[in-house]
Design a protein that fits this description.
This protein has 621 residues and is α+β, with helices and mostly antiparallel strands. Among the domains are: 118 residues, 2-Layer Sandwich (Beta-Lactamase); 103 residues, 2-Layer Sandwich (Beta-Lactamase), CATH 3.30.450; 149 residues, Histidine kinase-like ATPase, C-terminal domain (Heat Shock Protein 90). Helix content is 53%, strand content 18%. It has 14 helices and 18 strands. The strands form four sheets. A six-stranded antiparallel β-sheet has the order 7-6-11-10-9-8. Helix 8 packs across helix 14, helix 10 packs across helix 12 and helix 12 runs antiparallel to helix 14. It starts with 5 loop residues before the first helix and ends in a 7-residue tail after the last strand.
């Protein structure tokens, strides 16, 4: 037999060691890259959050400035209503009055700093203007097609941004209907410039723009994006805008974006197609008050990403340094551990046999104790689960009673008020000797007391704790549920279709009533926003059970919510109108009685809950 040489044995030892070192180096490289990426990601996320917070402040500040710039001219059109010469010109136009009003408007325009002020007659033609001396004067021009005139002539405030049809100068138009003797005799219009906002943005090195109700950029710090569309325009919209001449003859190209990623409400990360702009921006949008306009702020992300890259590199370097320190410490630990292991090996060999025997004995004892503990825990868990289910059912009852308390209080207040009136009248009629009228009042009082007793008795029965077993009458349960919901049904225009017969079911009476109250209440909530409300209560016997269906003609349940209907605390009701326990408790009560609660979604709309319950068990002889 041949023996391995010393060099061969050395090669077998060196190769696995080299492989381990290579694998360790690769793991270290992956760790450094992973930590660097995590550092970059966390820094980028924090930078975007800080940039968004600063942008929110800038957006709010500039929005207030835009709103202030717009609103400071709103008083001017209505001011002309106080000028008697304007009224006289509109009622009886003459060359002298027109000249006098032109000079008045010219002076008012110079003092206010607006672009132009002019007056339109009821047909929309300019009868006086502040630029009457200019070659491109508005005098005599027909502006009845402008939306601001169409709003003002019917008494609404006219607000419109557009490019003038005469000289193509953009401006913001404010129009006001001039009244005389309770009728509108003309329209006053003030045209103001808003390009000072663009100059202010440029001085502050702020990248922002304002888009109007049509999605067209009307003001921008970068002139290249002005009169571009922030959203696609269909052919019909383009034709409508072209006919209105709101933007003169602008092409209205769409603002090209390479990428658009929503981050949160009103905040997006976008990349512009323009080559000489920074690649990525943080886009934040806010609607301006009293206008359909939106102010958009663009914050470059280049500096933030550069800082995130630096932080990622620092995280990688720190991780590499820490890894090298850990490797050095581990090598030293191995040397010390080897020495200690050699010292403890002999003692470990002597103790091994005794330790194994002790472990086997301890394992057997522990297994026996664990089995006993598991039996006790399972019994305790079953008891606790049963008690928790009872408490949850009772909590569901009290939640329903709490939701109905206001309606029930109103229902009781009416008989109480009637009792007070009838009792007082009965005393007076007895004193007068009108016994028949007094007897009628006392009979009515007796009926009201019976009615109040039925309401309180239903509440006491509904709130009473019950057990799992019992027998229920279907008709009695439906009548009791409708009685509990009577105050709400009185306020709701509802048609109830009852298609079932009297049947005895194998469930406790109060629990069946609670299931029906939950299902009918949910149907009423689903139909609260529609005029035609239809509720079907259909029952049909099956082989070993009875099938009861509660169906409404509401809007139905959204597909993404259907799989969560029977989960605890899941609800589709707005605000705090529901706890999300009604269907969960109802399904649990049905299952405890040996039945089930399911749902189907009819093609004709609405929602149908299907309650299946067994018949009562026959008593064993």
């Amino acid at each position: 037999m041949q023996c391995l040489s010393a060099s061969s044995r050395t090669d077998l030892i060196v190769k696995p060691r080299l492989f381990r070192h290579l694998l360790l180096f690769l793991l270290l490289a992956l760790l450094v890259l992973g930590c660097g990426y995590i550092g970059y990601h966390l820094s980028a996320h924090a930078g975007i959050r800080a940039l968004a917070e600063n942008g929110e402040r800038q957006l709010e500040l500039n929005a207030r400035a835009v709103e202030s710039e717009i609103t400071k001219y709103t008083y001017l059109p209505s001011l002309l209503e106080l000028e008697g010469n304007v009224t006289r010109l509109l009622l009886a136009p003459t060359a002298y009055r027109r000249h006098h009003v032109n000079r008045y408007l010219q002076g008012l325009n110079e003092r206010s700093g607006s672009l132009a002020i002019y007056v339109l007659d009821p047909e929309g033609r300019v009868v006086a203007t502040s630029n009457w001396e200019a070659a491109d004067s508005y005098l005599g021009e027909d502006l009845s097609f402008r939306p601001y005139y169409q709003d003002a002539i019917v008494g609404r405030p006219g607000r419109f941004y557009g490019i003038g049809s005469t000289i193509g100068e953009p401006g913001y138009y404010l129009a006001h209907g001039l009244r005389h003797a309770d009728r509108i005799i003309g329209v006053a219009v003030v045209k103001v410039r808003l390009d000072s906002l663009e100059a202010r943005w440029q001085r502050a090195h702020l990248e922002a723009y304002i888009s109007d109700e049509n999605g067209i950029i009307i003001l921008a710090s970068d002139p290249r994006v002005r009169l571009k569309s922030v959203r696609p325009l269909d052919a019909e919209t383009r034709e409508r805008l072209a006919r209105s001449l709101q933007y003169h003859w602008a092409v209205l190209d769409e603002l090209q974006l390479l990428n658009r990623s929503p981050l949160s409400e009103g905040i997006e990360q976008v990349s512009f197609a323009t080559a000489d702009l920074p690649a990525d921006y943080l886009l934040q949008t806010r609607r301006l008050e009293d206008t359909p306009w939106h102010l958009t702020l663009l914050s470059p992300l280049a500096e933030q990403r550069s800082a995130a890259m630096s932080h990622g590199m620092l995280a990688g370097v720190a991780t590499a340094l820490l890894a090298f320190l850990l490797i050095a410490w581990n090598e030293r630990r191995k040397v010390i551990a080897t020495r200690l292991a050699a010292r403890e090996a002999l003692q470990a060999a002597n103790d091994e046999l005794e330790r194994k025997i002790a472990e086997r004995t301890a394992d057997l004892q522990a297994s026996n104790q664990r089995l006993q503990a598991e039996v006790r825990e399972r019994e305790q868990a079953e008891t606790t689960l049963r008690l928790a289910q009872d408490e949850l059912v009772q909590a569901g009852k009290l939640a329903v009673i709490g939701q109905m308390s206001t309606s029930i209080a109103h229902e009781l207040n009416q008989p109480l008020a009637a009792l007070r009136t009838l009792s007082g009248n009965a005393v007076r009629f007895l004193q007068r000797g009108a016994l028949d009228v007094a007897s009628s009042n006392l009979q009515t009082i007796n009926e009201l007391v019976d009615r109040m007793g039925k309401i309180t008795a239903s509440l006491r029965a509904f709130a009473r704790r019950t057990g799992d077993s019992g027998e229920a009458s279907l008709i009695q349960a439906v009548d009791a549920a409708l009685l509990l919901l009577h105050p709400r049904l009185q306020r709701t225009s509802l048609t109830i279709h009852r298609e079932f017969s009297e049947t005895r079911l194998g469930i406790e009476q109060i629990r069946l009533e609670q299931i029906l109250v939950n299902l009918i209440s949910n149907a009423l909530d689903a139909m609260r926003d529609q005029e035609d409300r239809q509720l079907w209560l259909n029952g049909a016997p099956e082989t070993d059970s009875y099938r009861m269906e509660v169906r409404d003609n509401g809007p139905g349940i959204a597909p993404d919510a259907r799989s969560h209907l029977f989960e605890p605390f899941f609800t589709t009701k707005p605000g705090e109108q529901g706890l999300g326990l009604g269907l969960t408790l109802s399904a649990s009560l049905a299952a405890a009685a040996g039945g089930s609660l399911g749902v189907r979604h009819p093609e004709e709309g609405g929602t149908a809950f299907i309650l299946t319950l067994p018949y009562p068990r026959e008593p064993q002889s």
